[in-house]
Specification:
Layout: E1 9-13, H1 17-28, E2 32-36, H2 40-59, H3 65-71, E3 75-77, E4 89-92, H4 98-108, E5 117-120, H5 127-132, E6 140-145, E7 154-159, H6 165-177, E8 181-185, H7 193-209, H8 215-225, H9 232-239, H10 241-255, H11 264-271, E9 284-285, E10 292-293
Parallel strand pairs: 1-2, 1-4, 2-3, 4-5, 5-6, 7-8
Antiparallel strand pairs: 6-7, 9-10
The chain binds nicotinamide-adenine-dinucleotide (NAD).
Length: 295
């Protein structure tokens, strides 16, 4: 892996599970990283988590201790977006909410150099529409990492209508320099992975809602019956139920087909603030020694 000349410094907006994973991967590949979040404590938490996750990779022999020692100081806390002037590429990885993402781009673009590239890690929202709200739709791309970013091989690349070939080529080389494999997806709601995955998860929630199976039965059935490494409800908790619901809403609105209607039970969990692992409760309760189903 060689780092690109055009891109030396990567800014990451949002230090949640995806933002910290993206920062981790970029730093290990040799890029300088600026990590921002609206909540400063989130950045501190992310820096600690990155260290812990890298140490785990060292323990498993996936990376060397020296790689970790070199990578950690490359990640710097950026308390405000105003610190992003040095970025060659900024990747937005904040919550899956179009208004919030638009606001971030509005605040970020005046700070970025005119030649800097801008990417969103959105799971579902139109890249063309997000790009059109910025001053650089030709330099805007969808770069969709999978969760957890340090372990998952795939990154989806999504071109907006106005994305230039040069932007695409740079994004492709950048993602390959991280040791990832790409899949190209057209800019339609939820792209490829979540267009297929989220209706399956939503259907699993309907299966629970209608009493066809319990949480444990549904997950066991899909693990052992379809050979999925995780059951769909475990996976939903891992992704975040707020993110799953947002993606279903984008599919429902964007494709105007009732087959994508979000399950009312998924809505209820999100309304309760039971968002999965990140809040310790979702379809399972993670506060005890082992996860316990909540229904
Ligand atoms: N969870 C997944 O499995 C997954 C996978 C691929 C892509 N994504 C996408 O990545 C993005 C982030 O998802 P996540 O799972 O990391 O969410 P998360 O809830 O773990 O983290 C989101 C972070 O964004 C921060 N944030 C909110 N508003 C902000 C603002 N205005 N400025 C800066 N930071 C702000 C929050 O404080 C939080 O730390 C979403 O677009 C999501 O669709 C998620």
């Amino acid at each position: 892996m060689t780092i690109l000349n055009q891109i030396r410094t990567v800014g990451v907006v949002g230090a949640g599970q995806m933002g910290n994973g993206i920062a981790h991967v970029c730093a290990l590949a040799g890029y300088d990283v600026l990590l921002n979040d609206q909540d400063g404590e989130r950045i501190d938490g992310a820096l600690k988590l990155i260290e812990k996750n890298m140490a785990r990779q060292v323990g498993r022999g996936l990376i060397k201790q020296d790689d970790m020692k070199a990578a950690l100081p490359r990640i710097k806390k950026a308390a405000k977006l105003g610190d992003f002037g040095a970025c060659d590429l900024a990747i937005e990885a904040a919550v899956e909410n179009e208004e919030i993402k638009r606001k971030i781009f509005a605040d970020l673009t005046p700070v970025l150099r005119p030649d800097a590239l801008l990417a969103s890690n959105t799971s579902s929202i139109s890249i063309t529409r997000l790009a059109a709200t910025t001053d650089r739709p030709d330099k805007f791309m969808g770069v969709h990492f999978m969760n957890p970013a340090p372990l998952m091989k795939l990154v989806e690349l999504i071109r907006g209508l106005a994305t230039s070939q040069e932007t695409y080529d740079t994004a492709l080389s950048f993602v390959e320099s991280l040791g990832k494999t790409i899949a190209n997806a057209e800019d339609f709601p939820a792209f490829i992975v979540n267009r297929v995955l989220q209706p399956m998860i939503n259907e699993a929630v309907y299966t629970l809602y209608e009493g066809v199976g319990s949480v444990e039965a549904i997950d066991k059935a899909m693990r052992l019956g379809a050979n999925h490494p995780m059951g769909p409800l475990e996976l939903a908790d891992f992704i975040g139920l707020d993110t799953c619901l947002s993606i279903m809403q984008v599919l429902h609105e964007g494709l105007a087909d009732t087959k994508y209607r979000p399950c009312p039970l998924l809505v209820k969990y999100v309304e309760a603030g039971w968002l999965g692992r990140k809040t310790q409760r979702g379809f399972y309760d993670y506060r005890g020694e082992k996860p316990m189903p909540t229904r």
